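Structure tokens please, single chain.
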Amino acid sequence: MKPRPRGKWILSTLCLIPLTFCLLYESPLPNAQAVEHAQVNAPAPDFNLPTLEGKQVSLSSLRGKVVLLTFWAIWCHVCREEMPMLDSLHKKYRDKGLEVVGVNIDRDVGASVQDYVKQHGLSFPILLDQERKAMKLYRAHFVPTTFVLDKRGIIVDKKVGPYKWSTPESQGFLEELLKKQ
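Here you go.
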């Protein structure tokens, strides 16, 4: 029996790999498989995540409120600096309809997130996204990333990186959103 040349088989296999990737990643998904992503001026995609206490919270349950949805991590220094500012906003405007929601993306939560929340007295809900599904849904590639949702659940703004939420301009923007029906 004559041995088969391996060079042609390897070459033909190597040629198929790029073609396979093109077919998988370049062709649009059918509507049933299309993935909804977060965009400014579009409805905020819904998700369901557990709180630190284990209670499930869906984003759609907050409809009717202005929502600051912030993706953060305990290892992110600027995230930790921003959290007290967000908590201050939450305390100031929660009775007027503002809901601040922190989505923690740490894979190994342990007690570190709970310790941080207790240590800083954060009053707003912290949701756990250990598998980073919501983060991917919102294409929050950097932390912190914060989405501002109006009362109808429409994304009206997106801030990538730390933001000065204590300025008169940012508070005025939130106050205007809170006034709108």
